[in-house]
Amino acid sequence: MEFPRLLSPIKINSLELRNRIVMTAAHVGFSTSEGEVTDRLIDFYTHRAEGGVGLIIVGGSPVDEHISMPNMVRIDHDRYVPGLKRLTDRVKEAGAGVFIQLCHVGRYIHSSMINGEKALAPSAVYSPFTGETPRALELEEIQVIQGKFAEDASRAKEAGFDGVEIHGSAGYLVSQFLSPLTNQRTDKYGGSVENRMRFVVETVEKIQQAVGPDFPIGMRIPGNEMMKGGNTLKEAKHLAVRLEEAGIGYLNVTIGWHESRVPQVNSFVPRGCYVYAAQEVKAAVSLPVLTCNRINDPALAESILRQGSADMTGMARALIADPDLPNKLMEGRERQINHCIACNQGCYDKIFSFKPVTCLVNPRVGMEKEWVPSPAEKPKRLLVIGGGPAGLKAACTAAERGHRVWLAEKSGRLGGQFLLNRNIPGREELVTLVKDLTDHLHDLSVDILLDKEADRQFVQELSPDVVVVGTGARPLFPDIKGGNNENVVHAWDVLSGKADVGKRVVIIGGNAVGLETALYLAHIGTLSPEALHFLVVNRAESWDSLEQLVSQGIKQVTVVELTRHMGKDIGSSTRWTVMAELKRLGVSLLKNTKAVAVHDRGIDILADDKTETLEADSVVIAAGSESENTLLDEIEGLVPEIHIIGDAKEPRKAIDAVREGFLVGLTI
Question: pLDDT grade, residue 418 (50/70/90)?
Answer without folding.
Answer: very high
